[in-house]
Amino acid sequence: MSTGLLLLSLCPAIAMTDTVIHSLWMSAGVILVSLLSTIARDVLDRSSASTATSPKGAVRLLRALLISSVLTAAFEAGLLAVSPTASASMGIYSPLIAVNVLVIADRQPAARSLARSASGALGRGLAVSASLLVVAIFREALGAGTITLFPAGAFRGTIIVGPLVDQPVRALGLAGGALLCLGYLAGALQAIATRRASAASEGEKPR
Amino acid sequence: MSAPPPVPPADAPRPSSAPRPGVAPHLRVAMSSKRMTWLAAASLVPALGLGVALYGVPALMVTGASLLCALAAELATTLPWRRFTLADGSAALTGLIIGLVLPAGAPLYVPAAASAFGILVIKQSFGGLGRNWMNPAMGGVVFATLSWPGAASWSIAPLGWPAGAALTPLQALRAALSMPGSHQATPLAVLEKAGYSFSGLDSGVVGWINTHLLSPAGLALRQGTLDVFIGHVPGAIGASAPLLALGAAYLLHRRVIRWQLPVIYLGSFVVLSLVFGGLASGQGWSAGGPGFHLLSGNLVLAAFYAAPDPVTSPLTGTGKWILGVVLGALTFLLRYFGSLGDGAAAAIVLGNCLTPLLDLWTFRRPEAASRGAA
């Protein structure tokens, strides 16, 4: 995985976790594009006569980028039609969904069937969405004193978080605050993974 | 000459009682880090005393909140692992510096949050004392300033000042310079023209000096000279440059800190202010008022108590020189052209980010080690 690609995928994660509703739109884009691009790539792979003719290396990456870019453009067009406000708020960051999807796809092992590929992509998309949502809730609740959701009926779409709305921790709403939250989230996930790995190795030891 | 002690094999298990060294390179000094920290804290007591005398209970409340919160955060992150690190003085010094840097009018959640952030995020998250790559006190202050820019700069009038005077001289200078036609030769002249009033003590002393000592020679001190010099102005609790310099002189004498980094830092700031400072406000060359800026805000405290922090400053002499110039330039830019407080805390935080690079670029490995690595 190139560091540049990872850093580029951080841009929309930082920009779109300033409010919960932005992170939800971003999550919807990531899940949809990730799922559909995985299906498309899987179908193309399976249609190849043999592994010798299927693309590898840079060509494979280019193919994945093309597929996810086309699907991202379609998502942008759809979002503009459904919710022009959300489309405007995503702005320059919605095309970068393609990069996030590439990062997710890079981690994806080959699956036996199309259904398994699709369910794997869905799972990874949901995991990324959950991370974005956690960071967004933390940043918006502390950094702005609100949690912004979709308005429905009498609910105007904004939950006020106690006295924080008057004196919010603005530093968390800035890009540095987003990096801080992402760092702690990554650290927590790494700690959980390390603990699981050590527990598993303890269990494998002969008694 | 006695025979050298036997060297254990590289893969030999370390005895459980053996000390566990930290990350190399190691420095060996005559004084323990614990003693150095407590000496630094003790040297700040005169500045704290003047702050409490000038601002009264609010100063005690702000300093107490930052101190207690720093100690509580340190306890909360060490006691669960059955460690007690309060005795090393690091958390107390962090809390004390944060309290001194903030104004007495700041709401108590500001020093509390600054201390908690400094200890929890900047220090303990990276492994505790010795492993933090940023000065916890300055990092906490920058966090509070970014989060609550208004509340973190709420000043109150010190003892002997007209009630309601709350703008610091730096804030008043910025406001005055933003008005058309307010350009004067020096910052104090700008403030005088803008109607910024200083204390009665300053008027009396400066008037007496002018009348009896300077007027025969055709010279005169500006109103506010004494107040700015001794830190008797609205602003940070520990803004008294002479008392801070006194404490720093003691630390230099005891070799707790070295002179290079603070002197180069302040020197480069003064030179830049002198040459380019006036250009920022259209006053021309050599009109930046370096003396006023040197004595205002938290520059002296940052230069002597945060910049030479042994954990976050470069190990090599060349690195210290480079960092000193960088800190001076950053403080100059942030103060004259920025809006983030007086610029000193932010400059320290930005400079700390460069320290690992400076160590990497300027640290010379022993020749034998270099050959071994090759």
Question: What would your notes on this structure say?
Answer:
- The complex is a heterodimer of chains A (207) and B (374).
- Chain A is built from 8 helices and 2 strands, in the order ααααααββαα.
- Chain A has helices spanning 3-15, 20-47, 57-82, 84-90, 97-106, 114-143, 170-173, 175-204; strands at residues 146-148, 158-160.
- Chain A has a two-stranded antiparallel sheet with strand order 1-2.
- The relative contact order of chain A is 0.15.
- Chain B is globular.
List descriptors.
heterodimer, A: 207 residues, mainly alpha, two-stranded antiparallel ribbon, 3% strand, globular, B: 374 residues
Greatest interface and its participating residue counts: A-B, 10 and 11 residues
Amount of beta strand of chain B:
under 5%
The main β sheet of chain B shows up as:
none
Shape of chain A: globular
* DSSP summary: helix tally of chain B: 17
